[in-house]
Amino acid sequence: xxxxxxxxxxxxLAAWGINEFLIRARTGNRTxxxxxxxxxxxxxxxxxxxxxxxxxxxxxxxxVLLPPPSVIWQRIVASIPxxxxxxxxxxxxxxxxxxxxxxxxxxFVVAVAIDRSPFLKRGLxxxxxxxxxxxxxxxxxxxxxxxxFDWQSKAAVVVVMTFFPMLVNTVAGLxxxxxxxxxxxxxxxxxxxxxxxxxxxxxxxxxxFNALKINSTLALIGAxxxxxxxxxxxxxxxxxxxxxxRLQVDMVWAEIAIAAVAGSLxxxxxxxxxxxxxxxxxxxxxxxxx
Amino acid sequence: MKRWVDGRILPITVVxxxxxxxxxxxxxxxxxPWQQSxxxxxxxxxxxxxxxxxDVFSQQRPVLPAPHxxxxxxxxxxxxxxxxxxxxxxxxxxxxxSATGLGFVFGTLLGIGLAVLIVHNRAIDKxxxxxxxxxQTIPILAIAPMVVVVLASVRLTGLIPKALISTYxxxxxxxxxxxxGFRSxxxxxxxxxxxxxxxxxxVFWKLRWPAxxxxxxxxxxxxxxxSLVGAIVGELPTGAAGGLGSRLLAGSYxxxxxxxxxxxxxxxxxxxxxxxxxSALEKLxxxxxxARA
Lengths: 290, 293
Hints:
The structure holds two protein chains of two kinds. By secondary structure, chain A is mainly alpha-helical. Helices cover 81% and strands 0% of the residues of chain A.
């Protein structure tokens, strides 16, 4: 046993003890309670990093296999201006955001359109469900052939990957309106568009946000994987595959960390918007008043 | 039965036919420029339309192969190639399927195990659950090739690295579904178990587990599709080692569009077959548990 291992073990035990204590703490104060709900997972995450660092250093695992977090952090700080920021621009700001907006937007429009035809709905829904279970990442090489090496081909992959989950969920959401509410709108002599805007879209928001959240991860995956099939010399996927080739594992992990943070933030922003838009939904109300 | 056929089969058929038709239209549109440049070089003028169509549909490396070309390629590489050579799609599909299956089994077991821990220990619930959810916002597929390469440097090659990626992708839906499932028994049922003086193990096996089974199957269907994607992406960097992913990569290097589409078709068929198998298992289990048909 050496110092690193013992430290890691001690930190782990201490953190476990603190967490066991914290979740048993009884308090009527709502702020403290929600603070505990945040602190407990944070402690767990920090412990994970410390144990990782300790194990890697303690067993002196070669950095080619798994670099300790501190080395990865240094690499991130050192290479943010170049190449991480240009990569991020290329992959996230161009491919992901553009593809995500086009994919989700067009799926939404198509869903509203086919919603008017029960026949199309019955035909397209099973097909859409089937397609969204397919390994659609596989179209990446084809898109690279069609749209060239630059970010347009990655955006196209993202469009295809995000389209079907959005379509299926939006159609399901538009169907979520009960007959009673529809009848009520009818007694008001509401037009199709009034019913859509005032009743059916609000009912569909939870479903739509569900799809938007699923798609936020899918979009990032699609863009990065598509870059493995050919790309200009910039982009997170390119950097990852290039760094693997040179066995710069710390660079790979740095890109992954950035991708993870970007993915989580993307998800978090959408979750925040969801909370603002569907504040009336039971799942949101429940969180506020436990 | 008649009503059901009218209700779903017809619309689906129409939609699928429409997709095939649109596909053909795009085939013509996308492949025309190349065909015209061929005619230009040959000096052929006034080519009859039928001749033009048949030429467009029989290019060697079309931008978009016509459905029947994909079907023909699929047929020859599935039935006409010996099943144990890299020319056969069955060969590649089997490699991918075995990695998918192994990873899916690991992932499901891991998911159930984590869910059991989460349901029975509040500390684990509070500290692990947010990270389980956060773990899925990480584009893990992006590092799939690295996992394969790194594991290969410790002499761990073949099925296991790909299966690990599949595991990572498939455990998440199972954890989330099973936590929900294990918590689905109502308080009144738990109280009943308490009046029977049931031990935690008895509560688990006789109440929580049966109640969670429907959730298990629903999340397994999501998980198996994710597993397949993981296995395919995991095969991208392994080069000639085989599998649908390497077939895709080879097709993209050599411009063999028809081969890419045939591999995609195979992946789609695998995905459909796996989901169908789980649905069948679900039906059998439901019947064994005495569900009303």
